């Protein structure tokens, strides 16, 4: 092995020996590389390939809005005072001057009216929080519907779900900080939620509030959670999320030249970096515009928190709406036994259900791979229609979420639509059970019929809308074959196999023992796959072409016309041929 | 890892996964107008530079707005939140957006747009690496003797496990134990029911049938000899959180008093806790005709003519009633504290 000694100091001169005189940037790069060895690391990653698709931007919105939250949040901390000590407001907002309020509220008003750009930053912070949570949710849907969560990416799904959970908690703690009437109402409800927990509830409430509600500890404690604890965890999880993304390489849509084994797209440097970097400025800019032009959480209109007051139409931020809705439609059940009380009416909708929904979300990839028995790596995305049952499961969950969310606005709906709140409540109580089932069935059927449609398109061509009249006077629509790239894309997916119990053998060919859940697994696998339309085989395609040829003979009189039917038989390429034919 | 090879890499032959149509491979790269026409490229260059220039203009405008426009009591101008906020937001937004749009335009028009292809590698490590790792782990276990000396191992596990205790115990002083605090409020025999906000006592004759008054215990407003408030700060907040009440006068014949509550009202005036038994919102919406009280948080509805029973909504328990009487001067006072805890249910409540 030869050792490059050119970089080793061989004199006593003050400067390190270098092979040749580099330029200015070279000097810096050299300085850094000799200490950090960045060259090797960056060699691999600077031209790393990132595939392009609009839906891959959703995660980016989440990432960049988090950065906006960090920046605007730090600005807010410079003025905000996390204290519940009472002061008399003397700032420049006239209607509240002289009113007793907590320092937290007074400093929020100061930020809003006496610090230049303070209201802008508050509103930017709040809007960015909305963007953050909304984009995470839509990003999650994208990942699920396209099957991007499958092996080897399950852990990134888990991390993503945790991010959504923590982002929601972070939003709730932030919403509580200004200590205005709405946020205080939210905290008080949270106190009620905690008290509904069996055995530990009352203690948790007293420990969290430092005594009885409202105490004077909750705002400073939530502040620590909001600016230190959760952002720290979020930062670490986001870093892990990104590292895994780079390690696995991004998924891509199938298409000509895009396979399970490669990744096609733009290199990180320069195109992807420029687009992502530019996009950061766009997200930042949009938050700034929203912060400047759209009012959000005008705490001065609600006034300071007063435990004896509440405003009509009290509502949490929208992402807390669905548990709030469940809380509203839950019947008033409460049990008393052995001298204790269990408030099902609060415990189930607000403690059990969110936990359950989150667990289901977290488990989705693992449930699917258990049902399908699929343990292979997947890097090509699937269209939602090509996984009908998976798609239907998420649509059912979304229906549940949506109905619960609507229930969270039942009073507003009642007023706007002049309905009775009782009727709305009874309706949603039933719909929340029936709706997801109906949604599941419809979605699954719909996906399968879309698959059929794709199959038809591939075998018999697409509908041109051109009506042909035959010699006998019958009418038929002309179908033209899809082009090669699209045809390939339509066929490039995997055949699915229903998992059947009992067909497994161990290494020695001895049938493996049936597991206890094998029956269930087999049934679920049937549900998952059995009705799906499988990709067209070579034989089917040839048969269809043959049929087309046959038809073509019958229509021989059309020979020489545009779109004469040769396009069906694959004897010559159709690319570039003028099918509509104005010749 | 190979980078930058433009050829298509065909799908590996998987027995069940050969598509019916062979992979035609990546489509040919098409040149953009800016790639082939230097004039167009120059124009794109100028466009991008203009966008960056506009951003700088916005920054200047931002600075001007910052120093020229007042914040403060001009909050009503411009949709309720001040000319300063609107101007700062639009200029900052513009400054950022122009940079973003400029960079993306640059990337789309002028940067190379060759799509390149890179091979994937499986996430799992190679068999040799796995074997080497397992070997190293086994060697580590062997050399430490962790398997051979269970006494050391187990006592260490125990010791580290116990370290969790200080971490938990140290949280003990986060708050006091609940004790019986949730069972009592500041109400007591003879305490006057006074009006919310102003704190004036209420004569039963002040109320017409159908009148609803938000009220509080007198002690919330009381001052001692030195003119100091008796209740202040946290104590005051806690007292108000539990003791707020609602007075309603209705036709005495409308009331269906529960057993033992026959003398809790005064000439049709009843007094109930204002704190919802669901999760604790203060209740305030009154349906005049029906004596129903609606909680704005989740719409639990309580019937004040019938012991505060829940007639609709997610709450499970009636609103606690405060027994009323009149003192010598004819003002409404409490007969006692509430006879049950107010507010949301909790485990120990029984
Ligand atoms: C995922 C991240 C975050 C979310 C979802 C979030 C959300 C929120 C929300 C909804 C508010 C209420 C804003 C209002 O209307 O006044 C808020 C307030 C606040 N946030 Fe955040 N935030 C996040 C990160 C941060 C960070 C990293 C910091 C600081 C380092 C921070 C500091 C603050 C401060 C000081 C307030 C109180 C401001 C006020 O009362 O006006 N936030 N946050
Ligand atoms: S707090 Fe009153 S109904 Fe929920």
Structural class of chain B: alpha+beta
Whole-Å distance between the termini of chain A? 71 Å
Oligomer: heterodimer
Inertia-based shape of chain B: extended
Strand-and-helix sequence of chain A, N→C?
HHEHEEHHHHHHEHHHEEHHHHEEHHH
Would you give the CATH topology of the largest domain in chain A?
Cytochrome Bc1 Complex, Chain C
Radius of gyration of chain B (CA) equals 38 Å
Q: How far is the first residue's CA from the last residue's CA of chain B? A: 68 Å
CATH C-level name of the largest domain in chain A: Mainly Alpha
Average pLDDT across residues of chain A? 88
Helical run tally of chain A: 19
CATH architecture of the largest domain in chain A: Up-down Bundle
Radius of gyration of chain A: 31 Å
Quick one: biggest sheet of chain A? Answer: 2 strands, antiparallel
DSSP summary: helix tally of chain B = 8
Shape designation of chain A: globular
Number of domains of chain B: 2
The CATH superfamily of the largest domain in chain A is identified as Cytochrome Bc1 Complex, Chain C
